[in-house]
Amino acid sequence: MNLIRVIPAEGEMRKAHFLGMGTSRKFRGVFLSAAAILIVAVSSLAASCQQAETKNLTIWTYDSFVSEWGPGTGLAKLYEQKTGIKIDFVSKGDGGALLSSILAGGKNIDADLIIGLDNNLASQALDSGLFSAAKLSNLGKIDSKLLVDNKNRLIPYDYGNFAFIWDSQSKITPPASLEDLTKPEYSKKIILMDPRTSTPGLGFLAWTQAVYKDGWKDYWKRLAPSILVMTPGWDTGYGLFTKGEAPLVLSYSTSPAYHKAYEKTERYKALVFAEGHSAQIELAGILSSSKHRKDAEKFLDFLVSEEAQALLPETQWMYPANASTPLPDSFSVVPKNIVTLNASVADPVNDPEAAAAILAEGAR
Amino acid sequence: MKGKDNVLLRSFGFLAATFTISPLVAFAVSAFAGAGKAGGANKALPLLLAFISPSTLSALKFSLVQATMSTVLALLVGFPGAFFVARYNFRGRRFFMALAAVPFCLPAILVILSFILYYGKSGYLTLALARLGYIPKGEGLLYSIWGLVFVHAFYNFPIVIQNVGSVWAKMPRSREEAARTLGAGRLRSFTTGTLPYLLPSILQSASLIFLFCFFSFTIVLVFGGLAGSTLEVGIYRAIRFTNDRPKALALALLQTAIALLVVGAFAHFDRKNAAISKDFGNPPPRRRPRSFSLLAIGAYSILIALFFLGPLFALTAEAFTVRSSLAGASHFGLENFSRLLTGPNPLLLKAAGSSLALSGFAALAATALGFSVAASSHYAARRGQTMKAIGFGVSMNSWIIAFPLALSPAVISAGWSALMNSSGDMLIVIGQMAIAWPFVARSLSAAFSSIDRTRNEAARTLGSSPLQAMIWVDAALIAPSVASAAAFAFSITMGDANIPLILGGGKRETLPLLLYRLTSSYRFSEACAVGIVLALFTSIAFFLKERTNETS
């Protein structure tokens, strides 16, 4: 108890002595003015922080967008240089987790923009009523086939065609159509992703439904013997493929560009199928609860501008949505003659289950 | 004193339960807050139907069958190892015990890659066999239920070596020797003198492995063959893709109800095991292996090296394999590491730093909480104030400790994300602590109940107060166990990718998160390199744990 009383007194005296002030009265004056300066400084700092805060945009996205190899950092830097507005990216896990946190958060989400939904998740996101329409000057530059929402609440920023990647060092002839995949020569030669747990799996289901209409279940039945394994996510499936487990894997038509850019190899080739391909269109949107609507709209306009779009091909490994964006050299290995089908899963609740069950039946 | 203990016991139990229950409650609230497509009441019927739908039932059946098969094989593989580490002193004994780190710390995608790199079509084993002129038939055998059971068993068997082996090592020989002097044969004396005392620890390991396999997700889907489906798939899908949280909750409740039966069995055997090993006294000396036993240990080691270390070796080799040349050929080198270590942004170093710091804090917090729960239960029990047994002869606190093992990881992740509206380091630490503390509490409960009470009593007859005796005698006895529990907590939090992914906001990169990011951007060889570093950190923690166990 005594100690506590003594120590501040000592400190006070020592300080007073150090400052060359004999009387405690003078010290009090200095102390008071110092305190006043401090208060002004802190409050102005707080004010400037608040001001800066109004200039900040918070964007929820999925993890690989903000990772070292994603476009997040580059986009934020570029945008801050141009406008002085800081971008705060917050990752919510993977794409599925992003949607589920948006829907769970509802109107209380502490964010202005969402980047990273896709055409498979769009209807649920729009049904939630959490997104508001955006007026963009660059809207006309976006490939009109990609516009999934006529009210422009969700804006496409990149897209990729689902395609089978073929290992050219394997000794199989590359298939040329979905139907070819069912041939006996491809028995246990294909790695697929599960339509219940992954976006590419869902995209493949939509693809087969677009091509075979009501006959899609029969197609899956015929396909079953060709499937070696159905992985829960893209990364596991593609990992198995590059380790040589099978010569064919479901991925994106842009995948060979990665191998070209970083491994300098053209061993893995995307196959163009006669029936056309389904696509994944990635979407961004402004939350109606955003307090910075104007700034959010500006950023979205920036995201689909050529300048920002040029960052996407070699980070997202997807095509930019703005068709006038120049493509990097690595994309020269991506086949150009792909027909994009308008494809979506008819019954997103039951069809993936049914598809998985058909494959299970066929494997038995 | 009596009332105070009870308050302590209850409050620590309550605190611990809060960490387990709150994400669950948060998830349940979010399920019924109207975030789903349809309103509350008209969900009831489809939900009831979901319980008994054919897909749920077949998923349940498959989960149970594969988990049972995997557990049986893991027991068969692990049992000889448990015997060897219990009875013999040999080179690599400690290594055998430390292998138990693997099932807790190696992320599923690396387990898959390592088995593929070894057993796969262009795997090391396959190529080696081909060179010997043997080309294995049965293409795709790895991707069938047999492959799944094999991978699960060889991923989890070290748990048997560790848990059964450590009990067996402490078991006095007197009973078995007595049986033999009475004329019983080797087998007979084993079944009457040893097995009854070993059974609880065998069943305890079995229930733990069963739980791991029951909740296993990625490995089941990849290796389970196309028939592979689990309840967790339904839960995951309902949360992530169809946004049907009430359905996810229903499936999760079903899954948890079944897992709770196993958890109850686990807690029951755990308690029995602790009760049995309490009376063991000083561990008997371990022999040096001679002719026959040496041969047996050698054969067993070769078996383990071939089937279990092989894949790990393949993973290491992959980390040093560089695949980036015009011809597509690969060579050995350090590029996978150096690419992550050099440059203005040395990712691997930064991630290792973050992982060490975050797991360090999380492990400390988990140890503090786990210790408080275990200690308060122990001292309350010592005064004859055990909480009422509420099932399987297991007390409330034991249930609290075991309960987290029965929860769906997908639900817990979504629950944490619903609970925390923000993200940051603090939240990562809290989330990871919530994962790790039950393991600390469990191993410390066992350690407390095996404390030799006579020393405490001796101190008190020599004039120490109960508190002094507790601090100077019990604390000294329990300290090594606390250290090893902390090391275990560190390993568990170190290997977890989920919590940093969900609560980190993408701003903090830990080793498992870096690994996840590498695999989701085509960089599989670099992911293996990160995996090796991660495995190194966790195994160091485990070796330290084994060392403290050894000296205690």
What would your notes on this structure say?
The complex is a heterodimer of chains A (364) and B (552). Chain A has 364 residues and is an alpha/beta fold. Chain A has two domains: 152 residues, 3-Layer(aba) Sandwich (D-Maltodextrin-Binding Protein, domain 2), CATH 3.40.190.10; 145 residues, Periplasmic binding protein-like II (D-Maltodextrin-Binding Protein, domain 2, 3-Layer(aba) Sandwich), CATH 3.40.190. In chain A, strands 1, 2, 3, 4, 5, 6, 7, 8, 9, 10 and 11 form an eleven-stranded mixed β-sheet that branches. In chain A, helix 8 packs parallel to helix 14. The longest helix of chain A is centred in the first third of the chain and has 31 residues. Chain B is mainly α. Chain B has a two-stranded antiparallel ribbon with strand order 1-2. In chain B, a hairpin with an 8-residue loop joins strand 1 and strand 2. In chain B, helix 9 packs antiparallel against helix 10, helix 12 packs across helix 13 and helix 16 packs across helix 23. About 1% of the residues of chain B have low confidence. The chains are: A alpha/beta (364), B mainly alpha (552).
The SS-based structural class of chain B is mainly alpha
Number of helices of chain A: 14
Terminal Cα span of chain B: 31 Å
Q: Uncertain regions of chain A: pLDDT < 50 for 5+ in a row?
A: 1-27, 41-54
CATH class wording of the largest domain in chain A: Alpha Beta
**How many DSSP-defined strands of chain A?**
11
| Through-space gap between termini of chain A | 80 Å
The fraction of residues in strands of chain A falls at 15-25%
CATH topology of the largest domain in chain B: MetI-like fold
Corresponding CATH architecture of the largest domain in chain B: Orthogonal Bundle
**Which bin fits the share of residues in helices of chain A?**
40-55%
Mean pLDDT of chain B comes to 82
List the domain count of chain B as a whole number.
2
- Give me the secondary-structure category of chain A: alpha/beta
Helical run tally of chain B: 24
Based on Cα principal axes, name the global outline of chain B.
globular
CATH architecture label name of the largest domain in chain A:
3-Layer(aba) Sandwich
Specify the oligomeric state.
heterodimer
What can be said about the biggest beta sheet of chain B?
Answer: 2 strands, antiparallel
